[in-house]
Amino acid sequence: MPSRRAPSSESVLNRAPLAYKLLDHITGVLLAFVVVFTPWAFGATVPWAIWTTCGVSYAMGALLVAKWIYRSRGNFQVTTWADPMANSWPMRFLAFLSGSFLLYVLIGAVNYRATGTYVDGELELDYRDAISWLPHSFNAPKSWRAFWRYLALVCLFWSARDWLLGKSRRERRPVEDFEDVLVPLLPSRLRRFLWVFCISSALLSLMGLLQRYDGSNKLLWILEARESNPNDFSFGPYSYRANAAQYFNLAWPVCLGFWWTLRKDSRRIRDRTVRAGSQSHVMLIPCLVFIATGPIASTSRGGALIFFATTAAALLVMLWSLRSKPMAWLGIVGFFAASLTIAVVVGGDKLMERFETVFQDKMSGRNVLYEVGHKMAADYPLFGTGAETFVSMYPLYRTDPTAQREGYAHDDWLETRITLGWVGLGILLAALLTIPWNWFSGRGVPGSLEFVLLLAVALGGLLAHAKFDFPFQIFSLVTVFLLLACVGTCVRRESV
To answer: Which one of 61, 169, 257, 347 counts the least CB within 10 Å of its CB?
Structure first.
C-alpha cells in the first residue's frame, strides 16, 4: 500500500466544519433509533410512540436543513455516492411530488367541510361551507393530524437519503490507497442501516416466538393487547397478528438480498486465506431464519399467503442468479425449508384452523366493509373525504346502525381512494414509480440486481397485502416501508 496519499476529496472534506460532521453523525444515530424504535414500541400503534417517531423525524429534517445551509455557505465540498453527472430528474420529480402531496393534504385540512366531536361516544359532524373545487376534509382535526404525520415522514425520507448517500471517512480516501481492495457492492452507511434493520427484525421475531410459546397475553410481556382474544390476535409487539406478519414479510426479502450481496462481496475478496465461515454475512443466516418464521408463526392467513407468494418470487430470483450453481440453490431452498419447519411447529395448527373457517367467516366480514367502502369512494371520487376521515364517515354509510364501528376499510387501496381520492392516490403512485425510474437512469450507488429485485419483492408484497388489510394505517409499517423505498432510491443500475 502506498505510504503517501494524493490530496483529493478527503483533503477537501477536512475543511468541513466540525459542527457539520456532528450534524451528520447525529442524523445517522437518529436514523438507527427510528428503524429500531418504531416496531419495538408496540408497532407505533400507541400515540406516544407515534409522536416520538414524528419528533425524531422533525429533528432529522431540521438537521438536513442545517446541513444544506452549511453546504451553501461553506467553502467545502461533501463527497457522496450520487454521481453529479447522472440524471437528477427522478429525485427532483419525487421532491416535487412530496411537496405536492403535503400541500394537497394541507389544503384539505384548511378547506374543511366539517369538524367532528364525540357526544356520548358517538361522533357528530358540524358542517360548514367549503370550496368544492379544492381538496376538502369532513373531519378537520383528523386531517390536521394526518398532515403533521406526513410531514414527519417526508422529513425522515429525505434526511435518511441524504445520510445514506454520504461516504464514510474510509470511502472518501483516494482510490490509490486501496489498490488491493475491491469496491464493495453496497456502501458503508447503507450496510450499517441494513445490519441494524436485520438484527432488530430477527430479535423482534424471536420475541414473538417466545411470547407464543409462553402463552402470555401481553405485548412483549409489558402491555395488554387491545384485541378481545390476545393469544390469537397478538404477536410480538403487534396487537394484530396480520400487522406482525406484514412487518416480517417486508423484512425477510431485504435481509436475504443483503446476505446475498455480502456473500458476493466475500467471494470477490482477493485474499483467499480468509477462513470459511468467518465472514460477517454468515451472521445473517440465523437472522433470516427467525425473520422468515414470523409470517407463518403469527397465524395470519393473509401473511401466510403473501409469504408463500414472495417466497416463490425470491426463489425465482435466486434460481436465476444461481442458474450455473445448482448446489448453492439447494442451500437456499434448505434455508426456506428450515424457516417453514420452525414456523409450522409454532403456529401451524392454529393457522390451518383459520384457513378452514375462511369461507364461514367470509374473511372476517370484510365483504360488508368493501360494499360500504365502494359507495363512499363513488360519492367523492376526485378529492376524497379528507385524510384519515374513514372512521368518521363510515357510520354515515353503514346499513345497520347497530353494526360495529370500523376504524379501517381492510383495503388500503380502497381507503386511500375514499380519503384522498384519485388525485391523492395518483400522487402516491407516481412517487412509487420514481424508484424504478431512478434505478435505470438516476443518481445513486451501483447496486447488485439481486438486491434490488428482492427489495422490490419486499415492497411489492406489502402493496399486495394492502389490498385486503390495512398495513399503511400502522405507523411503524409506513415508516419501515418508506425507509426501504428510500434505500431503493439510493441504488442504481450498474454501468454496462
So the answer is: 169
Is 82:444 a contact under the CB 8 Å cutoff? yes
Model confidence pLDDT, tens digit, residues 281-317: 778 888 988 898 888 888 888 888 899 899 889 888 8
Residue found by looking up cell 400487522 in the block: 243
Domain limits of the chain? 9-368+383-492
Which contacts of 212-218 are long-range, i.e. CB under 8 A and separated by 24 or more positions? 212/297, 212/346, 212/347, 213/346
Asked if residue 252 has pLDDT above 50, the reply is: yes
Q: How far apart are CA 288 and CA 292, in angstroms?
A: 6
CB neighbourhood size of 376 (10 A): 22
For 488, other C-beta atoms within 10 Å of its C-beta total: 22
- Is 301 strand, coil or helix? helix
Query: How many CB atoms within 10 Å of residue 410?
Result: 23
Lowest mean pLDDT among 2-6, 266-270, 271-275, 426-430: 2-6
**For 238, which DSSP code?**
B
- The backbone region for 421, taken as left when phi is positive above 0, alpha when psi lies in -120 to 50, beta otherwise, is left
Residue 111 neighbours by CB under 8 Å, 6+ apart: 130, 131, 134, 135, 136, 137
List 115's β-bridge partners, or say none: 126
* 183-205 residue pLDDT tens: 567 888 999 999 999 999 999 99
- Cell digits of residue 93: 420529480
Residue 87 — left, alpha, or beta (φ > 0 → left; ψ -120 to 50 → alpha)? beta
